[in-house]
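Fold Annotation — chain and its backbone
Encoding — discrete vocabulary of local shapes
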Amino acid sequence: MVHGEITVDLPEGGLRTYALDGGTLSAVDAAAGTISIDEATGETVTVQTNDETRVRKDHGRQGLDALAVDDQVVVVSVEENGSFVARRVMVRNAEAESDAQPFHEDDDEEASEAPTNEVSPTEEPSPAEEPSPAELEASASPS
């Protein structure tokens, strides 16, 4: 995920626009209350933060001071008065990333040859025969 925006219709009326930005944290300016993200497209996005901005890092809530340059982040922002303000900054866990196994096209073929516990039918089910009009009439009459 690099960048995305979505505008939602609020139940109480009006619209709200959210932005998602993902990439490498390139700057944290606590004094200015901004963070900058280098996205895979080569673009650098700077997002304003405020007291409502929440940071998740190392499996817990942290402050902006826990953010470090080169952290891999996903930022959820909301548009307020014409500019976006970060609501959530989520740092991707480097340990979890290193444990992840990359997907290879060959993996899919190997997996299909492995035995499974799934039961597959050996015979195609045949469609049920419909009763004739005479059978329907006979079953509808009281005995």
In short: Confidence is low (pLDDT under 50) at residues 100-112.
